[in-house]
Amino acid sequence: MYIDDQFPIQYIDPVYRPPSEARSLILPVTNGCSWNKCSFCEMYTDTQKKFAARPEELVLREIQQAGEQLAGVRRVFLADGDAMVLSLRRLTTILEAINIAFPALNRVSAYCLPRNIAKKSVEELKILKNLGLSMLYVGIESGDDEVLKRINKGETAQSTYDAVNKIHLAGIKTSVMVLNGLGGKLLSKQHALNSAKLINRLQPDYLSTLVLTFHKGPERFSMAFGEGFQSLNTNELFNEMYTFVSALQLENTIYRSDHISNRLALKGVLGKDKEKLLEQIQSAMKHRQGFSDIRLQQI
Ligand code: SF4
User: Fold this and answer.
1) Hey, whose CA ends up nearest to atom 4 of ligand 1?
2) 3-class state of residue 229 by DSSP
3) Residues with beta carbon inside 6 Å of ligand 1?
4) CATH number at residue 40
5) Out of 15-24, 116-125, 223-232, 236-245, least confident range
6) Which of 65, 112, 237, 262 could disulfide-pair with 84, CB 3.0 to 4.6 Å?
7) What is the pTM of this model?
8) Would you say residue 126 lies in a domain?
9) Predicted pLDDT at 1
10) Ligand 1 pocket test: which of 15, 16, 35 has the largest number of ligand atoms within 8 Å of its C-beta?
11) From ligand 1's centre to the CA of 166, what distance in Å?
């Protein structure tokens, strides 16, 4: 546990937040993730990160004390991986306290699992939206049901669609994440194409792609995936990205591929920047292969 006598909030390390929340006050309302079974995810595997909702009185006290010390806070990110698992009553109480503590507040955000949204109605989500919850980050990982099953995501393309659609109906913005390389060599093409298909249905506000990475080794992931998992090399990752971006048909989605795991930083607005992004991926592939014979997969 990280305790700073001078800081009003206690953290149990490690604490994660999206890159775009770098300027936000990170407020843990839960510890860990209630699902915690995705075979690629190492975020909350340490014993101290076992899932639990943090005591309500503690969270409310921290909000009040943070308000006294950091009244200029404009953004709050509700950590850990699973804030939306909390009941409507508890989320409402927390958001009301945040609004009182931080008069300059203009945005509250959180990670969210589709399964948590399934338990809330659009009307309930609208109540949270009206209290300042304006962005939810959804790790969809893949739009391919076979990949989702093999990584033990506990979701399908349809359950993810239903959740994100509900969030949009409530007027809350979404930032969705897809994991490049998640299907290995075996499922690379269907992972890319079905992920693009799902993203096209969702039309999210933000989209980011990260690369499958194992800090603690690939054994747990490979065992769950079953026979045939082979990691993609850098060119194969680029090739998968090319297939994915080629198949995207988005109207106005801000796209980022600038996480530390990415081999190639990409930024743009889709669809208007689609051709530019494809050229950048193609150029990266050519560069790696010394302008040798490149054959991009054709859709
Ligand atoms: S739902 Fe998210 S935080 Fe939880 S185990 Fe899966 S990837 Fe990790």
Assistant:
1) 36
2) coil
3) 33, 35-36, 38, 41, 43-44, 81, 113, 139
4) 3.30.750
5) 223-232
6) 112
7) 0.93
8) no
9) 61
10) 35
11) 20
Question: Domain range for residue 6?
Answer: 1-112
The answer to whether residue 180 is domain-embedded is yes
Mean pLDDT, residues 247-268:
90
- Beta strands at 266-270 and 173-180: parallel, antiparallel or unpaired: unpaired
- Residue with the larger pLDDT of the pair 82 and 183: 183
Q: How confident is the model at residue 299 (pLDDT cuts 50, 70, 90)?
A: very low
Q: Which tokens sit at 298?
A: 């054709």
Q: What is the pLDDT of residues 64-75, one digit of tens each?
A: 999 999 989 999
Judge whether 143 lies within some domain: yes
User: Same domain, yes or no, for 30 and 173?
Assistant: no
Residue at token pair 């194969």? 236
Q: Which two tokens stand for residue 16?
A: 């994660």
Ligand 1 centroid to residue 103 C-alpha, Å: 32
- Rounded to the nearest 5 percent, the helix, strand and coil shares of the chain are 40, 20, 40
Which candidate, 223, 238, 219, 146, places its Cα nearest to that of 187? 146
Gap from CA of 41 to ligand 1 centroid (Å): 6
Number of domains in the chain: 2
